[in-house]
Amino acid sequence: MPSPETPKRLRISIDRGGTFTDCVASVPGRKTSSSSCSRSILKTTRYAPSEAIRRVLEIATGKKFPKGKKISLADVESIKMGTTVATNALLERNGEPTSRPRLFDLAINRPGVLYSEVIEVAERVTLEDWTERNDSARVDSTGLIKGVTGEWVRVLKPLVIGEIAAEIGFTQISLSSVAAPSIKIKYIDGFVSGFEDLENCDCRCEFMQSDGGLVEFKRLSGLRAVLSGPAGGVVGYARTCYDESNGTPLIGFDMGGTSTDVSRYAGQLEHVFETTTAGVIISTPQLDINTVAAGGGSVLSWRNGLFNVGPESASSHPGPACYRKGGPLTITDANLVLGRIDPACRFIPHIFGPNADEPLDISASRKLFDEMTAVINSEIDGKLTVEEVAAGFLSVANESMCRPIRILTEAKGHDSSLHNLASFGGAGGQHACALATNLGIRRVLIHKYSSILSAYGMALADVVHEERQPAALQYSDDSIPTIADALEKLSSKAEDVLIGQSISPARIATEKYLSLRFHGSDTAIMVQQKENADTLQAFKDAHLQEFGFIPEGRAVIVDDFRVRSIGKSPIDLSTAAAEAPPPSGKIASPSVTTQKPVYFENRGWIETPVYQLNSLDQGSKIYGPALILDKTQTIIVTPNAEATVHLDKIVIDLTSGEKSAVSSTKADPIQLSIFAHRFMGVAEQMGRALQRTSVSTNIKERLDFSCTVFSPDGGLVANAPHVPAMIGSMAYAVKWQIDH
């Protein structure tokens, strides 16, 4: 790895979100680390990225850069940017701010097509006598051409439409033969127009792609930028929290206002290759990020005897009840009522109410919780307190956020408890310890810039170019030379692209992959081909780990060749990521800013010390319960935890958590709500395994099956959302089998 560099000019990284734009800058004269960065957060508008750069330049250089005028980048070495609005740029061909796909609608309306007119052309190519073994292809017939992947095709009409369209003047041309067409997105053009000749100056401008790699802005494809914002966060925690010396895998937990994103990192980025976004199937590498509808603004409700969190969100307007705009109860209100958010904290601005000039209103939250508690007690004939109800909602929310984590780990054969939890996002620190306890995780890592880690991750990311080529051949001793030759050619092609972007060959590393599957199945697994490693055995091991079996006697088919060339970042954070011991010598006891009562489940109200993050020395230890605050986040250290301050992060170690008592004679609505999530997670994982291992189109594509959990007497407990038509009869079938 290259050694840490001192930037000669400003290095700026930006995460342009739908609501806020975060900006982090490495300042000249200091070594690159989180402590050397200036940061800025501002509300997202069309011009937010250029405005963020203007502000940073004024702070760093002391010069004036007037608003509305083009900005000189003479003092800027590089700009790296990601966005959560690229989905809109891809589908609508514009750059107006938008949210991510509508995850929470009960009725989904398919979007309109992207084109206004279709002109049909006669079929231009057909495969001739092709089989997976390719043993009956005709090789000498007139008009047949052997493709680069070995198939024989008959060309009926050469494809010249793309060239004709370009001559006519079309600027948006996507050819099916091009895996990732480059498009000139409106918001990129708008960004470039804010600077003095960005295209020809010596400032590197790169955009984050969904696969976690940067690309020169001229080469950005909307197809590859759908998850560029969340990808920055994954790169951020992977580069700052993963310790290569012990290899403990990480679970990324990014909790925002509306939803929570989770991911996994075990030494390399994990990708998926086909996703559906806004009704459009996108076949391109993306980081494997799962989303759940639980965030700080998720609405709390009591329905059918259960505590419900989301999927509805209060969003930013009207926002939670405490925002003074008549909003509903949310997770934020629950944290506020339980003392986990301090409305008097100097870091929380007075931006609430109709005139955006008032503090958070805890009385509004308390009033709605009083009303809900009365309704719940009347229905269950109980004596729950407001605190128990609020804590119950947080427990249900935490369990709902554990479900996608279990899908990423347990459903793929990994033990959740053998991971560390890397928490980030504005609300992550308030829930990280509780999630870790639920999952059996013993260590939580929270970077000091966790609330803006997506922007910081842009600064740490590598420049990446991928090449893929279809294969459709059987993996065998005879095909290994063909495979090696194809991968070598793709490697040279990918590396040339990076060199063309002024990446030094010494910084380029290339990874080679094969997309492998068993004959008769269309579930492929991407396996990295490593030197002196048994690729076939690695595929079988991966299949066994994820699905629990290996089909005997089936050939292995190579679907695709994939090469990923990586221009390594000049920033080396390996020493910061390692869990190094604190400095020698006596560490002063951390000073307590104040104390306040905080409610903890099974403990009640506890006088809890409050610490300022920026006043804590490296090596300081904080014993739970405690609150750690800074300008953008609150970190809750639970009573069963101990926090240690490292150079760039807070490391929280947990002992075994306390278990809530479960009555065997009386139904507890909180426990019922929690177990509803757990049983549903079991049913969903059953369905996922069945779908991925099936060779039936009815099961794999139509989801024509049901996965259900029944009680010992045959009663329905949980059913996954597949095709539920046969569930009514399943209950009778199960009961009959029990009785007979």
Automatic annotation (TrEMBL):
UniProt domain Hydantoinase A/oxoprolinase: residue ranges: 186-466
Swiss-Prot/TrEMBL GO biological process terms: glutathione metabolic process
One protein family per Pfam: Hydant_A_N
Domain Acetophenone carboxylase-like C-terminal: 591-645
GO CC annotation: cytosol
Hydantoinase/oxoprolinase N-terminal domain ranges (all copies): 11-165
Molecular functions per Gene Ontology: 5-oxoprolinase (ATP-hydrolyzing) activity
Domain of life: Eukaryota
Residues of the Hydantoinase B/oxoprolinase domain: 668-739
Family listed: Belongs to the oxoprolinase family.
Name of the protein: 5-oxoprolinase protein
Organism whose genome encodes this protein: Botryosphaeria dothidea
Upper lineage: Eukaryota, Fungi, Dikarya, Ascomycota, Pezizomycotina
